[in-house]
Amino acid sequence: MRAELPPADLPALTSLRFFAAGMIFVFHLREYQPSAWSAAIAPAMYHGVSFFFVLSGFVLTHVYADRKLSWGRFYFARLARIAPLHLATLALLLALIPLPHAVGQRLDFGGAALAFALKATMLDAWVPIRDVLQTWNNVSWSISAEMAFYAVFPWLLARMTRRPLTTLSGAAAVSLAVYVVGAAFLPVFTTDAKAPSQFDLGSCFPLARGFEFALGMATCLAWRRWVRPAELSTALWTAVEAVAIVGALLWLFLCVPPLVRGADGALFVWLRACGSCGVFAVLIAAL
After folding, report:
1. What sign has the CA pseudo-torsion 47, 48, 52, 55?
2. Nearest to 269 by CA among 188, 184, 165
3. How far is CA 148 from CA 59, 78, 152, 174, 232, in A?
4. Residue 80: how many CA atoms within 13 Å on its side-chain side?
């Protein structure tokens, strides 16, 4: 008799998606409604992107760990899910916003066309310069990073299920290497929009952000092995969830802003981009 597969949907995580999306909204709101409050919590709110990277690795592993996975079918399904809305958003941008403002940077025709092609094909995160990342629908760099994670997911899943610690360590090493190279050759920030910086490299480059996705995958395997089978009372599980939620909130609002503002160099870039990924992994597993 075939073992029953776990349900693909995890309702307990739906509310977390809402709050993480709210974090990203509040982060960008400071650009249009600046205030001392929004500026103070901006470093924590930006970590909503990191939450979605960790959650993505967790959910995909939950869905596919017990199934025979075809790379072609998997990637086509991911592309079909994301590309239509992404392209529709680009089209809406062109329809509603005058072209010079839609571009978002002072690019010549060739530069704007190249940036648009990279955005449309979801490859822009591989070119970590401001002239590409901050053009057109600039926030779609995160979709580009996700598509890179999807591209390696079948390969990564096969290795993660056999050697989770080794695979996670490898992902951490790749991410660390990107930060080390950036620290050795690039300034943290640059006024040249055509030149890379540590900030853009560490914030958007898929190889720098891939550890968060791999961490979500490893968290799912740990959850399946140790957390889900645990036979605890409802009251005890509720207490575990409450501790995880309160701990995450205290970390985000009391620890992240001073840590980010007090750091510099590569440490600043890492803390600013993904310094809460470990906290998010624990929160997802607990809920």
Report:
1. positive
2. 188
3. 16, 11, 7, 14, 38
4. 6
Closest to 38 in 3D by CA, of 26, 51, 25: 26
Cβ contacts of 272 within 8 Å, gap of 6 or more:
43, 46, 199, 202, 203, 260, 263
Q: What is the mean pLDDT of the chain?
A: 91
Tokens (6 digits) for 286: 């607990």
pTM beyond 0.90: the answer is yes
Residue with tokens 């392209």: 87
- Given a cut of 80, whether residue 104 has pLDDT beyond it is no
CA R_g for the chain: 20
CA 147 to chain centre: 11
102 touches 182 (CB < 8 A): no
3-state secondary structure at position 129: strand
Residue 143 contacts residue 82 (beta carbons within 8 Å): yes
Alpha-carbon distance values, 71 to 13, 148, 278 (Å): 26, 13, 28
Burial of 266 (0-12, 13-18, 19+ CB in 10 A): buried
Contact yes or no for 197/187 (Cβ under 8 A): yes
DSSP SS3 for 196: strand
CB 252 within 8 A of CB 276: yes
Q: Cα-flanking dihedrals φ and ψ of residue 7, to 5°?
A: -60, 140
Least confident span in 12-26, 31-45, 105-119: 105-119
